Amino acid sequence: SIQSQAGILLLKIVKDWQAEGGTIIVMNPKSGDILAMASLPDFDANNYFKVENPELFINSATLKRYEPGSVFKPITMAIGIETGSVTPETEYYNTGTVKVGDKIISNSIPDKVLGWQTMIKVLEQSLNTGAVFVEQKIPKDIFLKYLEDFGIDSKTGIDVSEVAGDLSVLESKRDINFATASFGQGVAMTPIELIRALSAIANGGKLIKPRLVKNIIYHNGENYQPANGKYELSSQIISPETSAKLISMMIKVIENGSGRRAGVSGYTIAGKTGTSQVPDLKKGGYKDEYIHTFVGFAPAYDPKFIVLIKLDNPKGVRFAESTVVPAFKELAEFIFSYLQIPPDKP
Predict the structure, then answer these.
(1) Residue 323 pLDDT grade (very low, low, confident, very high; cuts 50, 70, 90)
(2) Whole-angstrom distance, CA of residue 69 vs CA of residue 130
(3) What is the average pLDDT score of the chain?
(4) Secondary structure string (H, E, C) spanning 21-44
(5) What is the pLDDT of residues 150-180, one digit of tens each?
(6) Residue 236 forms beta bridges with which residues?
(7) Considering just the CA atoms, what is the radius of gyration of the chain in Å?
(8) Mind spelling out the 3-state secondary structure of 245-306?
(9) Strand, coil or helix: 197
């Protein structure tokens, strides 16, 4: 039922925003069980032999990397808090821009929320300069190690074909590359890698292994459970304390920030938006095209599901808060009802 609902919703928002495609993943952030995975453009599996474009066979949720943009900021913030480089209350002075070498990095809206800002505000208002502030407080080798711990450049182990993310831009150790990586530009990952990384924040700090198949029953009645039917966890990559702080910060994104339209009455929701530019692989730099992403989980302090919604090059609107955020609200309302999840706040 959740798969069907996700597919219908994805069709709707791709059409509404004249997007080139999109992806929705719904997962249990504690077990890694995939509850829904939908991608567009797709094909009729009953008539697969009629498909003329072989690219339609590619599952973009696991086989297409992209630069995620600001939805990546909670990972940078988690590293900052875990290493003791910042706290949620740490302040920096936001001028709207920051100079790194000979390059100028701006916030998406340069004159937005100027002056002294806490790390809570950095996520709430999605300030690029704040993400750079955090990254610059962390030694490069430690920052890179944590990104690897979050699985940014490795396959998730999901039981379908996938490709690994790409952190190769950081091998040069250039300041500007680390600065842009702090807000999700220059580094690339698949949607399944992104939702797994953010699940580590949602579930108390553990990296899970996503799976589509929970149980296999053969025609002879033999029953097979992959991994003995148990979900697999890696080592703890951030502490439960850091996880709890990030969850509180991501709740503020929904209450006061760019994720306000994701709110569902009676439920505490945590999430983060991302609006990323599409790199021009031929000419270098970036095209005048954008990818919208929202990842949210609920109930925030004991999440039963985490949702990623991604929209490729929607038309007529700049930021993700107008497209994928309302779509999350619609899907979350269905999941709360379908799974009979009780409200967790008045």
Answers:
(1) very high
(2) 14
(3) 93
(4) EEEEEEECCCCCEEEEEEEECCCC
(5) 999 999 999 999 999 999 999 999 999 999 9
(6) 206
(7) 19
(8) HHHHHHHHHHHHCCCHHHCCCCCCCEEEEEEEEEECCCCCCEEEEEEEEEEEEECCCCCCEE
(9) helix
265 is catalytic: no
The residue among 281 and 334 whose pLDDT is bigger is 334
Share of the chain above pLDDT 90, in %: 81
Nearest to 72 by CA among 308, 281, 316: 308
- In sequence order, the 6+-apart residues with CB closer than 8 A to the CB of 286 are 277, 278, 279, 280
Q: Are 295 and 303 in contact (CB under 8 A)?
A: no
| 3-state SS assignment for residue 87 | coil
Nearest Cα residue to 74 out of 159, 199, 234 = 199
SS3 (DSSP) at 19: coil
Q: Is the pTM of this model over 0.90?
A: yes
- Residue 122 corresponds to which amino acid? V
Query: Where do we find the tokens 């925030």?
Result: 300
> Around Cβ 248, how many Cβ atoms within 10 Å?
15
Query: Could you give the maximum distance between any two Cα atoms of the chain, in Å?
Result: 69
Residue 331, CA atoms < 13 Å, CB-side half-sphere: 36
3-state SS, residue 108: coil
Rounded to the nearest 10 degrees, what angle do helices 73-82 and 191-202 cross at?
Answer: 40
Per-residue pLDDT, 228: 44
Residue type, 270: A
The residue to which tokens 């002075």 are assigned? 93
What's the rounded Cα separation, in Å, for the pair 139 and 291?
A: 30
- Annotated active-site residue in 31, 70, 85, 276: 70
Structure tokens at 193: 């890698």
